[in-house]
Amino acid sequence: MENLKDKIREFGLSKGADLVGMASVARFSGVRMGIDQRIFYLMQKLLLFALKGSRAV
């Protein structure tokens, strides 16, 4: 799981996301995210949802 998080982080950084975009929304709730950060955040949530779903089978 840690390897997957590292890959997601590397991908986000390669697309221009900053560390604020990769942190939890609760931690930075007052910070306005740019489009790259929003896309990365949604990708991260979708991947985690897919992983949870694959374990349930």
TrEMBL record:
What is the official name of this protein in its record?
A: Uncharacterized protein
